[in-house]
Design goal:
CATH class of the largest domain: Alpha Beta
Strand content: 5-15%
Number of strands: 6
Mean pLDDT: 88
Helix content: 40-55%
Radius of gyration: 17 Å
Low-confidence stretches: none
Shape: globular
Number of domains: 2
CATH architecture of the largest domain: 3-Layer(aba) Sandwich
Structural class: alpha/beta
Number of helices: 8
Distance between the termini: 41 Å
Strand order of the largest sheet: 3-2-1-4-5-6
Length: about 190
């Protein structure tokens, strides 16, 4: 099996964490995946001079990742939904698989993105954007295939759970949000 080339878009809390995990656990991941997962390109709208990216090419143009013919999988971690949608749709039209942890993107544009991915024959994996990364989508899709589920609602998100738990104990939202951001639980822009 050939190596898999990954391009990461976004180096905020989630993007830098993803880079660190993929780099630190490369041997373990390769053993479990049956192939090497190589980070071959990174882009972020703002440079991260505090991070050692090794010899991985870096750009402040996030579209450099989706336009790189050597990238097999685009990991979208820029947040928001307008530019993120444009980025993901470009990746799909370039025949690249996409992984995203972007809840807003999936909520606002998910149906359109999934339709485009199906037409292009690529996968859009979004489990990291649901339930704080708890693998509920796979359980629902595979383990409950015989059930008809029309709708699911709830707050199953690590950041939301942390904030709501602290607020229930009497703390103010702004204070808890700031603490969650400082701890790396919440995005810099929590909207």
């Amino acid at each position: 099996m050939k190596d898999v080339s990954v391009g990461i878009c976004g180096l905020g809390t989630v993007g830098s964490g993803t880079f660190n995990v993929l780099t630190r656990n490369a041997r373990l991941i390769a053993g479990r995946a049956g192939c090497k997962i190589r980070i071959t390109r990174i882009a972020s709208r703002r440079p991260r001079n505090d991070m050692d990216l090794g010899d991985v090419p870096f750009s402040t143009d996030i579209f450099d990742v989706v336009n790189d013919p050597g990238v097999d999988i685009v990991v979208e971690l820029i947040g928001g939904y307008d530019t993120a949608k444009e980025l993901v749709m470009a990746a799909i039209s370039n025949g690249k698989h996409v992984v995203t942890a972007n809840k807003a993107l999936i909520a606002v544009h998910g149906n359109e993105i999934f339709a485009a991915a199906q037409k292009a024959g690529v996968v859009v994996a979004y489990e990291a954007g649901v339930a704080g990364g708890i693998p509920v989508m796979k359980a629902i899709r595979e383990g409950m295939a015989g059930n008809r589920i029309d709708w699911i609602a709830g707050i199953i998100n690590g950041t939301g759970n942390y904030i709501l738990t602290e607020m229930r104990a009497g703390r103010e939202f702004a204070e808890v949000l700031k603490e969650a951001q400082d701890l790396g639980y919440a995005e810099a822009d929590p909207t």
